[in-house]
Amino acid sequence: MLNLTYNYKLQPTAKQIEIIEHNLNVCRSVWNHALYVRKLWYNSRSCEINKCSLKSEYIVEPFEYPNYHTQSAELTKVKKTNEFLRSGNAQAMQQTLRKLDRAFNDMKAKGMGFPRYKKNLKSFNLIGKLSLDGNCLKMPLLKSIKLRKSRDIPDGFKIKQVQIIKKASGYYANLMIDLDVNVPSPVPHGHAVGIDVGIQSMIATSDGLILPRLSFFR
Question: Rounded distance, CA 95 to CA 128, Å?
Fold first, then answer.
């Protein structure tokens, strides 16, 4: 599988800008609340018994670790009674939860920092029926939005995901495209050479090559 990312500048209408901004706010709320629930879970299990208050200590109701699947199910349930969440795009909110889940996985596996609350969200992702029709990008949320088509997508590639990004200079779209092809692994060629860096000679290799030390200050 060959994966590429192409970036285009969008030319949205006033109505489309309103839709983008609204979904950025909705996804920001989803991110912050999901992060709050996860922090609550961590804090409820991080207090050592010899450091708890002698008078009183708030004990969180026991619940399982809030991973992507549990928070996704909770989001679906809450949307039925929350008008603000129901007005947002379902795919964008689900992808926001996936992004938060990846952030926690990176924190555990790669030693990345603890995820932070978002004062302003700059992007959200969409999946589904995505295609380019001339100078227009077709997607579930914005139907058809104009863009500056700086380059064509190579033949055979399909759009799998789009990231809508807000910058100071405008709105952009990152198109994640892929091609179902087997990419061969690089084949080693030549032979290995050992290199030693010394004082009398600058470099000495296992093949017998010796490079003399250079005198730069003479």
Answer: 12
The predicted-structure confidence for 18-64, as pLDDT tens digits, reads as follows 999 999 999 999 999 999 999 888 877 766 666 666 666 556 666 77
pTM of the model: 0.74
Structure tokens at 11: 């030319």
* Domain boundaries, given as residue ranges, for the chain: 2-179
For residue 82, what is the DSSP state? -
3-state secondary structure of 97: helix
Number of H helices, E strands in the chain: 4, 10
**Structure tokens belonging to residue 102:** 């990846």
The neighbour count for residue 60, using CB atoms within 10 Å, is 10
Sequence-ordered list of residues with C-beta below 8 angstroms from that of 18, at least 6 positions apart, any chain: none
* Type of residue at 109: A
